[in-house]
Design goal:
alpha+beta, three-stranded antiparallel beta sheet, single chain, disordered C terminus
Length: 261
């Protein structure tokens, strides 16, 4: 550091200063910060509540998990192989394009079945015209040379996007209970409680790839048309949907138990 200029020294120390500032702010506000974990603990201690569910929305970039996995595998292979094959890059590019098309067009089971049937029809057509061998030769010749570090960079980009959505979900979440729904929109006491009778919930698992990865959507709609609906991409949708149904059942039981005979 003796040969560094003052500007280089400032740039080097800047990340550490930012971390210290963030730690100082957290120490000052730790009692007022309301994360979803703190909300979960608060509901757990409430003796009047037996069923609850706290969920947040992941970014849709989670559907790129297959691409992330392939990127990491190809990065390791590039370290082991002296001259990586261009076929690896072609395979990676194909997986990325498939994921991109699924994300762009919200492909579900029907869309994927139509795609498979369309591809099958095209293969039969090409085979009847004796063009299928030429197509395989063309596809086999596709090569996409990529540096091993490029695979790692792409994986890190998607992982950062997913990590940011997880951090955001610490302060932007929805807590369901039999009596009310708490909608939190910020790190401090900026939550809003709405009566359960004022909302309705829908579980959507039509997206095939999301469901295969364990994700699904919980959508919250409001009776007040002025409120914007909430759509949350939730992990572990099977377990969470059953929990949500149990909370709905608790509402029905409570209403029946309070009705006069």
């Amino acid at each position: 550091m003796g040969d560094w200029t003052s500007a280089q020294t400032i740039v080097f120390l800047a990340p550490f200063v930012l971390v210290l500032i963030g730690l100082f702010i957290w120490l000052l506000m730790r009692r007022s910060i309301r994360t979803r974990f703190r909300m979960d603990q608060q509901l757990k201690k409430d003796t009047d509540i037996s069923e609850w569910l706290v969920v947040f929305g992941w970014t849709r970039k989670v559907i790129y998990l297959p691409v992330i996995l392939i990127s990491l595998i190809f990065f390791v292979l590039s370290l082991l192989i002296k001259e990586p094959s261009g076929t690896m890059g072609a395979i990676w590019l194909g997986c990325f394009l498939v994921n991109f098309m699924i994300e762009e067009y919200d492909a579900g089971i029907k869309e994927l079945l139509l795609l498979v049937l369309g591809l099958g029809g095209m293969v039969l057509w090409l085979s009847y015209l004796h063009w299928l061998d030429d197509l395989w030769a063309f596809l086999g010749g596709i090569s996409a040379d990529m540096n091993g570090v490029a695979y790692l960079i792409f994986a890190l980009i998607f992982l950062v996007a997913i990590g940011v959505s997880w951090i955001r979900g610490l302060f932007f979440y929805v807590a369901f209970t039999p009596n009310y729904v708490n909608i939190q929109k910020g790190p401090t006491e900026s939550g809003q409680q709405i009566g359960r009778e004022e909302i309705s919930t829908v579980v959507d698992t039509e997206d095939l790839l999301e469901r295969m990865l364990g994700f699904g959507r919980i959508m919250v709609t409001f009776r007040d048309a002025r409120r914007e609906d909430i759509s949350l991409l939730v992990w572990g949708i099977g377990k969470k949907s059953r929990k949500l149904e149990s909370i709905r059942g608790a509402i029905v039981i409570e209403r029946h138990s309070t009705e006069p005979i």
